[in-house]
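Dear Dr. H.,

I hope your travels went smoothly. While you were away I took the liberty of generating a structure for the chain from your last submission, since the lab meeting agenda had it listed for discussion. I wanted you to have the full record in hand beforehand rather than looking at slides cold. The sequence, exactly as received, is reproduced here:
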Amino acid sequence: MHDDEFRKPILVNEYEQVVDTKLAKLCERYGARLLIKVGLKEVLPINGSGLDDEDFSYALMAHFDFVLADETGRALLAVEFDGRRHRSDPKQRRRDEKKNRICEHFFLPLIRAGAPWLREADHRTLLEWIIEIWFEHRRLCDQKDAMDEEDWDGDPPEFDPDDFDYTTAYATREEGLQIFAPLDAFREARERIGRWYWSRLGRVEYRGWYQEAEEGHHVGLLALEVEPGAWLTGVGQADLRGLYLWSLTGVDPPTVAQDIALLDLSRQLAEWDRGRAVAISREGLDAMSAGMTRGELTWFAHPARHELMSFTRDHLRRSGVDVDDPRVMRHLRRCFSDDDEERELALTGEDDWWEPW
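The corresponding predicted structure, in token form, is as follows:
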């Protein structure tokens, strides 16, 4: 008999093991420490803290699945992995509410991640992405705080953290050579949908809705008209209640929910192009979006000029225009030129390329 037969596994399921691996890599990158199954009383100064009796008793017994700490061991961020029981079991939901209140009381950011947060966005899972966003925003705040000190003599901050926007921000990494990595994990989805949309010259519709669910998380719904009266939809959910209040100035939960829906819509569109996706009717879309707030909080990418020119040329060819005619090519180049004078010449109609048609 081996001694390990008397030991229980700390990570009880495959999802927790995956989270552990992902978080360990992030902690290594940002110089943080990863702590597993740590009691709340070991992380938070609960004695004499003003917690009511119910929450205080719970804090004595409960633990965090994961804690990201600084080099001194002080907690920076907690991560809970929530399985299905956290949504369906009333007792478990009450325990979760207690933990949420306790973290809010001590201003400890808390991420609640379920299996959907382990889906790939680009090269990152959604969980990796949101934690990377948190670390990068925190780095900017530290830069600003340091600059406010009288003895500051370093470089100015890259930009004010109050202006933080993950769709345009980049993370700076030192990995042999300096690397500027985009923080927008939804760029590939934006580009796929953008290319498809603009290849139809913007003649199809794109719509969005959002909603705060009764459980407290946000839901995003996006729809793309792929044929007249036929719509593909993407749905996303984001629960940032334990994170949004304290740190992510540039992260709006309904927008994140729609960005996650953008991933779903991109996958649906890829399946549609392969003939494997089923669109819904306008009536089905109305039923699906009933009770939600109308509005597009996120958008797909706008193609480069050369891509727009290619889309337009293909459309003209399908319409019977001889796109190989030098006059047509000259006009197209002027329309999509980077030169303002060339574009103005095309718009004023001074060249007569269209007369034969």
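Two observations you may find useful: The two ends are 89 Å apart (CA to CA). Residues 219 and 237 are 5 Å apart (CA to CA).

With kind regards,
E. W.
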